[in-house]
Write a structure and sequence with these properties.
- It comes from Crassostrea virginica (Eastern oyster).
- This is Zinc finger protein 862-like isoform X2.
- There is one protein chain.
- By secondary structure, the chain is of the alpha/beta class.
- About 55% of the residues lie in helices and about 10% in strands.
- The strands form 2 sheets. It has a 5-stranded mixed β-sheet with strand order 3-2-1-4-5. A two-stranded antiparallel sheet has the order 6-7.
- Helix 7 packs antiparallel against helix 14 and helix 14 runs antiparallel to helix 15.
- The radius of gyration is 27 Å and the shape is globular.
């Protein structure tokens, strides 16, 4: 029993199987006797396969007991730059919505036909081939090989199972709406350049990180290193990058200005850091994306329903529309041309006009990206969200139209 629990804990926490031996020795030091046999990585692999088979059987039984189920698929590359596709299955068992990992594997390629072959193969391997008629939904990103109207994976699946609905990931849509709204904006490009430059400037140099920490100590500042804004590009990453920028702003400026005499990169970053327009835009963007970050995290919840998503999207749009650019940090920059005690250079743009323009663009792009949620079938699923049900104190009038 102890050995089974140990290998399960290691895998759940992304630890290598080679840790199995020493964690068993640690148990012995604690007085937990569980024998000296099966204390090797080969036994650990056998235990892991037994656990996986048990979990796989439970998932299969849940699908067999459900009237419908849907699949979610996404891909990425492993450390060997080999494409790996993951499949998750979502169903309702005994009134409880469950999202379970089904499998991961390497398709022949990422073209729609090879992905279709991959999905069918994995479904058969998990003994679900006889239940494919229950498949009603397929969630994925918006790539053409997935949702292409002529040869996309969902289109190919629909040729055999006509009831399938293809759902573009709601969280991805929000990211795309945000990018569309700010695409080509000069200040946004400059701010992104600054944040990315800060991240790599300190990431690639242990010496610069050490000097920055020393600068923080001198200033009695509890700052942080720059946060990465590229990669997956989720909105929460941008928020953390902006929070880090202002939390450590005095240290960044002090250190980079000092290093600018001998380092051209530091000189360029220091100039961007004291630009009135860039810092004003950063403060403005920090406030604007706050409701979008909360929405992004909501849309990533595994128990989310279409009804919940529609409520969250509408609420976020209302909060965003009511945002006003009048916080103390903005006033300090606009009126005094200062940020946290450091003088800024250059002119400041019209904050109110820019704020309204950005908010209007974001709301417009959100409406464009989520317009299919008003379709009859998707709109009907709103009943699955209890938040949309009337309360006991709400007067509900039901009209029966009799012919």
């Amino acid at each position: 029993m102890f050995k089974f629990r140990n290998i399960h804990a290691l895998i759940k926490n992304n630890r290598p199987i080679s840790d199995f031996t020493w964690i068993n020795k640690l148990d012995e030091q604690k007085g937990l006797e569980h024998g000296t046999t099966y204390n090797n990585r080969w036994a650990a692999t056998a235990f892991l396969e037994c656990i996986a088979e048990t979990v796989r059987s439970e998932v299969t039984e849940n699908v067999r007991g459900s009237k419908f189920f849907s699949l979610t698929m996404d891909g990425s590359t492993d450390c060997g730059t080999i494409e790996q596709e993951t499949l998750f299955i979502r169903c309702c068992s005994e009134g409880k919505i469950m999202l379970k990992f089904l499998c991961i594997g390497e398709p022949r390629s990422t073209c729609a036909q090879d992905l279709l072959t991959f999905v069918k193969k994995k479904i058969q391997e998990n003994d679900l081939g006889d239940h494919m008629h229950k498949l009603v939904g397929f969630g994925c990103d918006g790539a053409s090989n997935m949702l292409g109207c002529h040869n996309g994976l969902v289109t190919l699946l629909r040729q055999e199972y006509s009831e399938i609905l293809g759902i573009h990931c709601l969280a991805h849509r929000l990211e795309l709406a945000y990018k569309d709204a700010l695409k080509g904006d000069r200040l946004y490009v400059q701010l992104s350049t600054l944040l990315l430059g800060l991240y790599y400037f300190y990431k690639n140099s242990a010496k610069q990180r050490k000097n920055l920490r020393e600068c923080m100590e001198v200033l009695s500042l509890k700052g942080t290193l720059p946060h990465r804004v590229n990669g997956s590009r989720w909105l929460p990453h941008m928020q953390r990058a902006l929070d880090s920028l202002f939390r450590s702003y005095p240290a960044f400026v002090s250190h980079l200005q000092d290093a600018s005499h001998t380092n051209p990169k530091a000189n360029g970053l220091a100039r961007l850091l004291v630009s009135s327009s860039i810092i004003t835009f950063a403060v403005l963007l920090q406030g604007i994306i706050s409701p979008l970050v909360r929405l992004s995290l909501t849309l990533q919840r595994p128990d989310l329903t279409i009804g919940d998503a529609k409520i969250a999207i509408a609420a976020s749009k209302d909060v965003l529309s009511q945002y006003t650019a009048n916080n103390e940090k903005l006033k300090e920059i606009v009126e005094k041309k200062e940020c946290l005690g450091w003088k800024l250079k250059g002119n400041v743009f019209d904050v109110d006009t820019t704020s309204e323009t950005i908010k209007r663009r974001i709301v417009m792009k959100i409406d464009e990206r989520y317009q299919d949620l008003q379709d009859n079938i998707l709109d009907a699923t709103t009943i699955g969200s209890l938040k949309n049900w009337p309360t006991e104190n709400t007067e509900v009038v039901i009209q029966f139209h009799l012919e």
